[in-house]
């Protein structure tokens, strides 16, 4: 009876949300591509490849961050089981773009099917995976249930339950508990995540605390660093000039950083600001904010070969796949979605690069990571806008302090790597 109710409510909710999906298709693009995948209907070429008899795991990742974790897991699975290939499913258009960079020729990229029994059965019939692996938190009950019915092992890796989600999981433990207990193994990021999973009805023995796989995901991109250094040099930015970087910023955070930049330049006129917004479709608004603050703007996506620019020009990095390279060049960084929005973006990346890293008060999506980094004095977290401004201005005014913080950051990340190989070995033993 409960599955009938769930399927009915899911169908009604999907129909009600359809206008939002259509609006998103028009605004962002990318959602129309391979739209039939959502119903478990695949092109003949994909079906032919799925029927080639190769061993395949199905790995699901929601968007960019989860795709990075999935990519790391796939690499390690290939290393430990060289004949392995993968079906990688994603939910978002940005996830699809990122996923194209981690799949290999033998792998297959699809959009995740709707969690309706008929759609899921079609997908499982076509893919016939040896295992189904979910990254982080997106649980689709019908996929888990129907995979379990077919004796397909189901795993949840890098599992976390956010502060916002935990009460809902606990209230609905009568529903989530049985779903979680259909899984073969759950690998949680922290003791608190395990506690919350158990509060949601999961058997304690099914959950293992491994730490965060995101420490293994981040890799320095020295080629991109060199390419971007050449770009900045052509734009007239000296290699000796200090760089303040806003990484994956959300609305409002760029305006805040522009204010800090104006104050910091009074002490160091050679300082440069680079803004890398999380969503590139908002780049026009960010450029408008830059110009409203009285600065010229060099937009990376529109100027491939820059000429020397005014010393206070702000660089708008609205291009894909370059943030790690920018972190490798920056002296001080602020990680976005942490000042006004909740959740935060990945602070491991600037720490890995030895960049003095700051975040705002809202870092719920990286709770275990933040706990580890703060315990080792590897980054600075501000309670509010005023404290963050003070932190940034202090780091920019004291280069030695910034370098020392960056060195602690890089060391802390290095000490926490190695989760993925251990988790992968255990997972393969359970398939």
Please, could you describe this protein's structure?
The chain is α/β, with parallel strands linked by helices and 431 residues long. The chain folds into 2 domains: 2-212 and 418-430, Rossmann fold; 222-415, Glycogen Phosphorylase B (Rossmann fold, 3-Layer(aba) Sandwich). The chain is 47% helix and 15% strand. It contains 19 helices and 14 strands. The protein has helices at 2-28, 44-50, 64-80, 93-99, 117-127, 141-149, 166-171, 173-180, 191-199, 214-217, 222-234, 253-265, 283-292, 323-329, 348-352, 367-375, 385-397, 399-415, 419-430, and strands at residues 56-61, 85-90, 108-111, 131-135, 154-159, 185-188, 207-209, 243-249, 272-277, 297-299, 314-316, 332-335, 356-359, 380-381. It has a 7-stranded parallel beta sheet with strand order 3-2-1-4-5-6-7, sandwiched between helices. Helix 3 (64-80) runs parallel beside helix 4, helix 3 packs across helix 19 (419-430) and helix 12 (253-265) runs parallel beside helix 17. The protein is globular, with a radius of gyration of 23 Å. The protein starts with a helix and ends with a helix. The mean pLDDT is 93.
Provide a count of the helices.
19
Distance between the termini: 31 Å
Named CATH architecture of the largest domain: 3-Layer(aba) Sandwich
**Main CATH class of the largest domain:** Alpha Beta
Contiguous runs where pLDDT drops below 50 for at least 5 residues = none
Helical content stands at 40-55%
Mean of residue pLDDT?
Answer: 93
- Taken as a percent bin, the fraction of beta residues is 5-15%
CATH superfamily of the largest domain: 3-Deoxy-D-manno-octulosonic-acid transferase, N-terminal domain
The major sheet is characterized as:
7 strands, parallel
What's the structural domain tally?
2
| CATH topology title of the largest domain | Rossmann fold
Q: What is the number of beta strands?
A: 14
Task: Give me the Rg, rounded.
Answer: 23 Å
